[in-house]
């Protein structure tokens, strides 16, 4: 699969008769839908787009040009990862990813909602460090603590149970990226091994889930892309080139 991101002026690839997901390789929201498609073993095509120079046709599937967008029939699309993923789970029920119990489904949604402040803190720390406030760090670690407490309370390998489910695939893309923050000079955002034993065990288990393993990128990769974006020249196609991408040098923390 090519990692090339199509941009303004590029033609829409021919429709192949399968579901087609429009994404950006480093977007956590798009990754959510990739993981769900993988977990449900649904055949699909994946098209990456440049979010700074968007191809004109993406607006036919997503009015704001945002990803992910899912082409469920030729020329017809829906967008927003939450909308897409619930649709996929209900349309293709053979591998259910949501809890059967309505209360547990509600609780799973609350976990995701309560984690949103940690996600917001990540974005500020990674892409807008000059705007960081003490509350960002507090919200970040509060989110991690709440997630670890939930894992401890449930006592299962994954939040969904013995197998990863929609709640896990919804949270995972951000946890994957959190590990890049220390490489970006934000050591205070590290997920400490002594404090987050249960959470880190969970994260290692998630990395081995087949749906995740085939799409996972290392902290080094995420840090390298983040650096390019912060500099104003996001290297969308860094995985589709022969350039060396495995030796990212951590950014020195400013005193």
Short description:
By secondary structure, the chain is an alpha/beta fold. Helices cover 43% and strands 9% of the residues.
**The biggest beta sheet, please?**
5 strands, mixed
- The CATH topology of the largest domain, please? Glutathione S-transferase Yfyf (Class Pi), Chain A, domain 2
Report the CATH architecture of the largest domain: Up-down Bundle
Strand order of the largest sheet: 1-3-2-4-5
- Roughly how many Å apart are the termini? 42 Å
Query: Mean of residue pLDDT?
Result: 94
Q: Rg to the nearest angstrom?
A: 18 Å
What is the H-and-E element order?
EEHEEEHHHHHHHH
**Tally of helical runs:** 9
The number of domains is 2
Which of globular, elongated, flat, extended, rod-shaped describes the shape?
Answer: globular
By secondary-structure content and strand pairing, the structural class works out as: alpha/beta
Pfam families: GST_C_2, GST_N_2
Organism: Plutella xylostella (Diamondback moth)
GO molecular function, one term: glutathione transferase activity
GO cellular component, one term: cytoplasm
Helices and strands, with pairings:
Layout: E1 5-6, E2 19-23, H1 28-39, E3 44-49, E4 69-73, E5 76-79, H2 81-91, H3 102-114, H4 116-127, H5 134-154, H6 166-178, H7 197-207, H8 210-213, H9 219-230
Parallel strand pairs: 1-3, 2-3
Antiparallel strand pairs: 2-4, 4-5
Describe the structure.
The chain contains nine helices and five strands. Mean pLDDT is 94; it is low at 242-255. Helix 1 (28-39) packs across helix 6. 43% of the residues lie in helices and 9% in strands. The protein starts with a strand and ends in a 25-residue tail after the last helix. InterPro entries: Glutathione-S-Trfase_C-like, Glutathione-S-Trfase_C_sf, Glutathione_S-Trfase, Glutathione_S-Trfase_N, GST_omega, GST_Omega/HSP26, Thioredoxin-like_sf. Residues 101-230 form the GST C-terminal domain. Keywords: Oxidoreductase, Transferase. This is Glutathione S-transferase.
């Amino acid at each position: 699969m090519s990692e090339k991101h199509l941009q303004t002026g590029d033609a829409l690839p021919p429709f192949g008769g399968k579901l087609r997901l429009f994404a950006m390789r480093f977007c956590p929201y798009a990754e959510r839908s990739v993981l769900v498609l993988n977990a449900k073993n649904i055949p699909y095509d994946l098209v990456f787009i440049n979010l700074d120079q968007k191809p004109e046709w993406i607006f036919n599937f997503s009015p704001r040009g945002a990803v992910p967008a899912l082409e469920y029939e030729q020329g017809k699309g829906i967008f927003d990862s939450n909308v897409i993923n619930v649709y996929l789970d209900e349309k293709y029920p053979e591998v259910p990813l949501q809890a059967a119990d309505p209360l547990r489904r509600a609780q799973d949604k609350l976990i995701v909602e309560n984690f949103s402040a940690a996600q917001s803190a990540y974005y500020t720390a990674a892409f807008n460090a000059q705007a960081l406030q003490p509350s960002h760090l507090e919200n970040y670690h509060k989110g991690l603590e709440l997630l670890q407490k939930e894992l401890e309370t449930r006592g299962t390998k994954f939040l969904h149970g013995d197998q990863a489910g929609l709640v896990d695939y919804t949270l995972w893309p951000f946890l994957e990226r959190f590990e890049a923050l220390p490489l970006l000079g934000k050591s205070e955002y590290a997920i400490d091994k002594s404090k987050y034993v249960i959470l880190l065990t969970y994260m290692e288990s998630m990395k081995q889930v087949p749906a995740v393993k085939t799409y996972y990128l290392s902290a080094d990769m995420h840090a390298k892309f983040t650096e390019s974006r912060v500099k104003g020249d996001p290297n969308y196609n860094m995985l589709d080139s022969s350039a060396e991408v495995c030796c990212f040098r951590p950014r020195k923390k400013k005193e």
